[in-house]
Q: What sequence folds into this?
């Protein structure tokens, strides 16, 4: 199968996709392919045909090819015809379910297409046939094609059907971009195989590890049993903590947090926390345990089916452990830049999960996540000790602080005020929002659930003691202990722009956003949208818009001074003279005299 003259390209002027994959992968500097796979040589395939039209084309072209006794001729004809018809590979995967009168001929055709097809749809036919009829000898050729854009998933399904060795999948992870690891890891997690379990137990868990993937890995390695063993070991304890922290966040994908679907969750939390003192006091372990505490205190794990008092006991254990001298001294030992950022996060969040306030009425927790996993900050609203958003609105996420604590949004007055507590991950128009009206009624504050356009959840009426409600809202609004300097600067800039709209109106800039450059950076980034297209201009002007990006590096001054200086410059100088092009219409940007960066 690998002899060169057995796989001459169907068109001698066009290299086969197989040869192209081998060549492009071979010249990648670090041996890894880009995210999404190697781009196809002819560009993306055409749009998929409608199902009925695709079915007509496949049933017209495939049976003659399957009946041709010469696989080389059949493959050449099929490749040419599919290219002429403009088929998309997705049309083929779904429809190659026809009866195979001669399985040997079909297998030979599939193998020939794997090695010689120049059209993506023809290659998809080859993968589908080998998926159905292939043998272990086909695994190397299939694996080589996994690096092509759009072909990783069907190749993995075929490899699974052929029961390829676990080592094949592990090697494939080393070739792919981290963004594409999830598909391979899911395949490994589905195997009842000691080699797969060992590799998964040592899998790097980081920002690319999604909640669903973490849950499947935890199930595959039998995490609960490992943690309850007599000597679990520090590797198991630390990996267990990392997997729990990736399962715990609200999914934001239309389903509940993965931790709520992880049946052994309570067992795992209990076993891990009771043995957490076996972990050496390192910065990474400190961050893992603090993340667990933050989630147990106010995140989706609080909704698990806990035995009375168990969750509270585990929080007490974590608090006591992290308060011991060895653990308390860990942040002070950080030296590298990213370690210092993580240590600062530990100092900001250290007391947050161990609030002893009785779980009645309203409680608002602002939680900054471990910078190792991104730059997210959540406002977790608890009603009677239970986190609201993951309980009633799994399609949404807990909002950023400024979206609910900014201004007087939650402050109760006799006038009814509408407040959006969460918006669906997809869009408000798709799955709605979690919206309430807030109103003072004598000695009480009342929240009424409200539907917008009949979609989204409707929260039952909640009544709060007015004095306790006011105190909690004011405490949450004024508490900025969670806020690192760069984020504080960005918040003050946005507040200033809100209070002084004339600053940007002077320069005809209707939209702005300000935030940090990343979890490990103190640079503040201000993005400004400019041009008639921003305001919905019709016709040709609709495309005339640019995004201006102004980066403010850390200069060591307090956030209030940094923000004041930025607002003063916006008041006196046109941002087009010092901000850089950050996106939009390049021709329009050139007409404005903006400096454009060179294309990568």
A:
């Amino acid at each position: 199968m690998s002899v060169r003259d057995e796989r001459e390209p169907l068109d001698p002027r066009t290299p086969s996709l197989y040869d192209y994959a081998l060549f492009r992968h071979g010249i990648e500097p670090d041996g890894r392919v880009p995210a999404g796979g190697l781009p196809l040589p002819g560009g993306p395939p055409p749009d998929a045909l409608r199902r009925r039209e695709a079915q007509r084309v496949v049933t017209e072209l495939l049976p003659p090819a399957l009946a041709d006794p010469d696989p080389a001729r059949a493959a050449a004809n099929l490749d040419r015809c599919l290219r002429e018809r403009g088929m998309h590979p997705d049309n083929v995967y779904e429809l190659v379910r026809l009866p195979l009168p001669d399985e040997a001929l079909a297998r030979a055709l599939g193998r020939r297409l794997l090695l010689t097809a120049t059209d993506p749809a023809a290659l998809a036919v080859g993968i589908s046939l080998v998926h159905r009829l292939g043998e272990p000898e086909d695994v190397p050729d299939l694996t080589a094609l996994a690096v092509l854009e759009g072909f990783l998933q069907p190749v993995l399904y075929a490899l699974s059907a052929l029961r390829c060795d676990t080592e094949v999948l592990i090697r494939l992870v080393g070739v792919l971009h981290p963004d594409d690891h999830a598909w391979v890891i899911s395949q490994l997690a589905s195997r009842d195989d000691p080699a797969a379990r060992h590799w998964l137990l040592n899998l790097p868990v980081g920002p690319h590890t999604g909640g669903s993937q973490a849950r499947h890995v935890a199930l595959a390695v039998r995490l609960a049993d490992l943690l309850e063993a007599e000597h679990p070991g520090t590797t198991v304890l630390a990996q267990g903590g990392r997997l729990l922290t990736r399962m715990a966040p609200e999914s934001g994908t239309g389903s509940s947090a993965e931790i709520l679907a992880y049946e052994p969750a309570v067992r795992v939390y209990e076993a891990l926390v009771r043995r957490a003192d076996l972990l050496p006091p390192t910065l990474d372990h400190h961050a893992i345990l603090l993340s667990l505490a933050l989630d147990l205190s106010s995140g989706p794990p609080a909704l698990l089916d806990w035995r009375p008092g168990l969750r509270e006991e585990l929080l007490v254990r974590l608090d006591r452990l992290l308060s011991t001298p060895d653990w308390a001294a860990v942040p002070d030992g950080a030296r590298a830049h990213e370690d210092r950022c993580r240590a600062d996060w530990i100092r900001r969040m250290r007391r947050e999960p161990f609030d002893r306030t009785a779980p009645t009425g309203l409680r608002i927790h602002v939680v900054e996540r471990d910078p190792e996993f991104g730059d997210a900050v959540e406002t977790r609203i608890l009603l009677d000790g239970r986190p609201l958003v993951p309980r009633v609105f799994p399609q949404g996420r807990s909002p950023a602080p400024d979206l609910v604590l900014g201004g007087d949004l939650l402050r109760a007055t006799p006038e009814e005020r509408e407040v959006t507590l969460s918006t669906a991950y997809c869009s408000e128009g798709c799955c709605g929002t979690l919206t309430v009206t807030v109103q003072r009624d004598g000695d009480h504050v009342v929240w009424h659930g409200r539907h917008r356009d009949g979609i989204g959840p409707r929260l039952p009426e909640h009544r709060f003691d007015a004095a306790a409600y006011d105190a909690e809202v004011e405490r949450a609004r004024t508490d900025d202990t969670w806020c690192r300097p760069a984020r504080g600067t960005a918040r003050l800039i946005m507040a200033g722009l809100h209070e002084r709209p004339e600053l940007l109106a002077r320069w005809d800039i209707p939209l702005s956003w300000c935030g940090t450059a990343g979890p490990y950076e103190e640079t503040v980034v201000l993005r400004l949208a400019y041009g008639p297209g921003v305001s919905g201009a019709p016709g040709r002007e609709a495309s005339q818009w640019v995004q201006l990006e102004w980066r403010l590096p850390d200069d060591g001054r307090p956030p209030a001074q940094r923000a004041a200086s930025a607002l003063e410059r916006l008041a006196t100088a046109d941002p087009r003279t010092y901000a850089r092009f950050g996106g939009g219409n390049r021709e329009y940007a050139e007409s404005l005299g903006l400096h454009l960066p060179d294309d990568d």
